[in-house]
Design a protein that fits this description.
24% of the residues lie in helices and 46% in strands. The chain is of the alpha+beta class. Strands 1-2-4-3 form a four-stranded antiparallel beta sheet, covered by helices on one side. A hairpin with a 4-residue loop joins strand 3 and strand 4. The N and C termini lie close together (11 Å).
């Protein structure tokens, strides 16, 4: 089974605009309930380019409704956790909960 963090990161970069988005940080923390096993993920991306602000706004508005296709995993929850305008572009913080499917 592929790593949920790597799959999620690729999906988030794809949503944010792969050619002008770079990974800054990604960390995951194991998570479990009585019936599910998964992980909480915290991701910071740097969006660059002339449309960076528009892409950040779109992700903020749509992240909770996006459907991610992660083989072997489901995204149970995703949220936009913050935004910072920097000299290099716009940093966005995203959080997600993935659970193992199956």
């Amino acid at each position: 089974m592929r790593d949920a963090g790597s799959l999620l990161l690729k999906a988030l970069v794809r949503e944010a605009g792969e050619t002008t988005t770079h990974r800054l940080t990604e960390r995951h923390i194991a998570w479990a309930s009585a019936t599910f096993t998964g992980a909480r993920h915290e991701v910071t991306l740097l969006l660059t380019g002339v449309d960076a602000a528009a892409r950040a706004d779109r992700l903020a508005a749509e992240i909770a409704e996006l459907e991610f296709r992660l083989p072997g995993h489901l995204v149970a929850d995703a949220l936009f956790a913050g935004r910072r305008d920097t000299a290099d572009g716009i940093e966005i913080d995203l959080e997600a909960l993935t659970i193992e499917d199956g």
